[in-house]
Write a structure and sequence with these properties.
Two copies of one chain form a homodimer. In chain A, strand 2 and strand 3 form a beta hairpin. Chain A is built from ten helices and 13 strands. Chain A is of the alpha/beta class. In chain A, the strands form three sheets. In chain A, strands 1, 2, 3, 4, 5 and 8 form a six-stranded mixed beta sheet that branches. Chains A and B meet through strand 10 and helix 7 of A and strand 10 and helix 7 of B.
Chain lengths: 311, 311
């Protein structure tokens, strides 16, 4: 079984839990998603996850291991979920132990951003590099760090929280009282709110929906100056946190994923410009700025790859 | 010879080059310093360094290796000095190769902040930790990172430049065009200038000398409210960059050295307060904030320890 090339990846999100069978970096079978919020407690939700896994195993009996990506703080070594940002009743849940007992397969549990980074590092845009900073831009801003050819997890498995780093010591308070947290400037709803404010200031009526990143990107593609200025601003603020990562870690590559990154060159162009004028030669000459190779499926593929690697 | 416990450590500074024989973490013999600026080019200065090394070797014939800490960008693997911030005629100097040929001993060349960090990590305040961020506060602000029990040097040996990281994306331009560079706020002369400005604004005449960090610390100890407010401000700004290091690397310890750190609790108290209110539990519960164990001699001891470790 350990030699089977098949693993199951679980991408546990605030809205849905997605479970799939992965062969190398390809999803070959995926179960219908579980609606996260329909379950009152972690016990019931785990039971539902186990049922789906067992169902997939009837079709693929040779699963070698299971990897789970969780949206919150995880003790990777113990497979213990400390807490989740947007899901209730997930305090100190020994998820790895519970799943291993119920399923009888090796289980690996990690932070979702680490899983996505692992997918990119092992099979995606970050392949072959020894020093990579990975950033995911969405509702929240997550990240992960690879240095010396290893995932850097830190003392309590918390490393890589790019979204919590500050771009302004006197700025907006983040979720943890951290002034100027990047996430409070370039998170999904913060981009939306800033764009809405800019339109209102210009006397233009727009719904919040029309100010969300996807709509804002569409408007910018059509030359809307307010939308263009918003992406310029997002690029500049993102560049500050990435620049800090570069001075600290001198990476070979920055890999950027998540929904907001789908704005493409609208974001990448100002981001690159602001980044490169703020770095000296040994920090930028070789530096690759890369969009993530995987989209929605990064979490599943990364969790599955992590399981594959660690058994 | 390789088994001899004696190594020579060289601390190459903008003012003097200090050369000493080190046994474990103790300096057992030190030559008179070389005045850096008295030498027009790197060739002559290297000759002077070689003469001092040979003189020390007549008294200590069993030197196993030599370590050199340089104030600038160094290719650690090749022992190549790319350039030095404050010393002319040091562009692309293959220092390791030159010294090895002239002296006939193994030579290791690294960035000075890395050497100081190595001293602290191997024999000082950072001993026993797997994840440490080291910061030195002086004319410039330097740093080094240990993660997963390894020194993190990055793709081009540049990692650890805490002083170049930004605390304000719209802030003062640093040496490399980097907006809000920490060094531009808490470097020696920036602390002096800010204090001078604060005294002038309060209608108090002070010389720049009386506003320098040592004098400012003395004034604060005696209750001077302007001096106290300056240290509060320095602590707050330093806390922002350290907080960023914590979110990114989740270290076990922060070790702070350099002249400015001699302000002690005047700096450490506000620094700690601002840091801890901006971190969540897994980032702060275990976190140790430690003053460096070594003072002026950190560079020599670290360079010697690095030589000891790598031969």
């Amino acid at each position: 079984m350990k030699d089977s090339p098949l693993t199951i990846g679980i991408d546990f999100g605030g809205t849905t839990v997605k479970i799939a069978v992965v062969f190398q970096s390809h999803i070959i079978d995926q179960a219908p998603p579980i609606a996260t919020q329909e379950y009152a407690g972690h016990g019931e939700l785990i039971e539902a996850m186990v049922r789906v896994v067992e169902e997939l195993r009837t079709r693929h009996p040779n699963i070698a291991a299971i990897g789970v990506g969780m949206p919150g703080f995880v003790n990777f070594e113990k497979g213990l979920v400390y807490n989740l940002t947007n899901v209730r009743d997930w305090e100190s849940v020994p998820l790895k132990t519970i799943l291993q007992e119920k399923i009888g397969l090796p289980v690996v549990v990690d932070n979702d951003a680490n899983c996505m980074a692992f997918a990119e590092w092992k099979c995606g845009s970050g392949r072959g590099f020894q020093h990579v900073v990975f950033i995911t831009l969405g509702t929240g801003v997550g990240g992960a760090i690879i240095a010396n050819g290893q995932m850097i997890r830190g003392a309590r498995h918390g490393a890589g929280e790019v979204g919590q780093t500050s771009i302004d010591y006197q700025g907006r308070a983040g979720h943890y009282g951290n002034r100027g947290a990047l996430e409070k400037y370039v998170g999904n709803s913060e981009i939306t709110a800033a764009a809405h404010e800019a339109y209102v200031a210009a006397g233009i009526q727009k719904s919040l929906e029309d100010c969300a990143p996807a709509a804002l990107a569409a408007a910018a593609y059509h030359g809307d100056p307010i939308a263009l200025a918003q992406w310029e601003s997002v690029g500049r603020m993102l560049a500050t946190s990435v620049m800090n990562c570069c001075w600290l870690l001198n990476p070979e590559a920055i890999v950027i994923g998540g929904g907001v990154a789908r704005a493409g060159e609208l974001l990448f162009k100002p981001f690159k410009e602001h980044l490169f004028v703020q770095l000296s030669a040994p920090f930028k000459d070789h530096l690759m700025l890369l969009p993530a190779a995987f989209g929605h499926e990064a979490g599943i593929i990364g969790a599955a790859a992590l399981a594959r690697e660690l058994i």
